[in-house]
Amino acid sequence: MGVSVTARGWGWRHSGRSRWAVRDVDLSIGEGERVLLLGASGAGKSTLLHGLAGVLGEQEEGEQAGELAVDGARPAAARGRSGLVLQDPDTQLVLARVGDEVAFGAENLAVPRDEIWPRVHRALGDVGLEVPLNHPTTALSGGQKQRLALAAVLAMQPGLLLLDEPTANLDPAGVLEVRDAVVRVLDRTSATLVVVEHRVDVWAGVVDRVVVLDSDGGILADGKPGVVLHQEATRARLIEAGVWVPGHSPLSTAGPAAQSGLAGDSEDLLQASGLSVARRRRGAAVLDGVDLTLRRGESLSVLGPNGAGKSTLALTLAGLLQPRGGELSALEPLARGAGNRPHRWKSADLVDRIGTVFQEPEHQFLTPSVVEELEFGPRRVARLPEEEVRRRVDPLVERLRLTGLLKANPFTLSGGEKRRLSVATMLATQPDLLILDEPTFGQDANTWAELVGLLAELISSGTCVVSVTHDRDFTSALGSRILAVNGTGARVGAAA
Length: 496
Known about the structure:
Rossmann fold, alpha/beta, 15 helices
């Protein structure tokens, strides 16, 4: 059975932060309701989900205002009734094997042993994760980890299902597969659903209600999907707030924001021939036979299903993994005397040659504040003078909407804010080659458009941008060449 949710003037502020992550929320959700929670990046959607799950922490971790209840009780007292899938699945996985991970939550709820393993098999089947129960969780791709995290929660059979961007890093087929899996579980259990997604068209047809958080506090809109998303007056407010409204493009100009027209006459930077890539030194390669030349002033998008080796290829091109086989050569316009093997370069050699934005932003944060994170590359690695550091960092802060977050700890930011910070840290080093893994994850429509515009300017000025992405709108906007990866090989195609 589903549970009810009540919020009365509720808000939360992280310790050391002057700004409330979310505040003045008045909300009532009935048993079995299915709610799509929207709002601009940083509006507090993830914080509200964490509050409902009872995992925000004690007083030393933040300040709470108002009341929040799950089935009339404090959320911390109802944890066994709530199941939360986090925005970053890596922070949720705790065990070494897939089967153990899915069973873990049910075991902690004291579900009888003879019920647990049927639940495990059914949950893995629901989310379409077709790997052996003893498959290492560390060997999964980002999209597969998302499926696993969802399966682990579904096996608990919670009365309140809380999903934070559950399909953000999935391929298009996987998005529909996971959504349909959630719907089947809801039909079977009558659980209450609160799901956060920026791209609303996937979920709008399967929810009863849309609730939009206002960045300045409170609720911006609340009602049936057809009314909230399509009524003219409400629709205009949502577009202004950066909500991904179906049928509206956040780009103000028609056609691509950038084209790869410079590539034919520009310098070659990096060349792969028969390249094989792998995460580990032992075991089979995850991708073979990649032939590719990256040139100054072009955009390349790497597309393909989850688990096909896209992220591993990106890390290898970035010099962070050694090629398993074949050749990967940095040509002189990129190498500039550092040698032709990027995986042998020191960090000081990489910093202004190849910049990498990881799929998980937290994996590249090194300092206790946003401003120190932005300054780290140009100041402490490239050792640039203060005037040049400011010239690079300050415009990025403004354009990527990080102004009010400079003193915040990077790990306390929302998922979208973390993504923008991770991109900005690499842009501040001004590399010749920029490699991005899911760069638009967690972005509202306004920050998405700003990021696209910024990358388009970089491409026009001669930077080569390589993006691992499932975002076809992003690929089209940058006029990218396509590298289609299928797990056994890769094929370069024409611009999007």
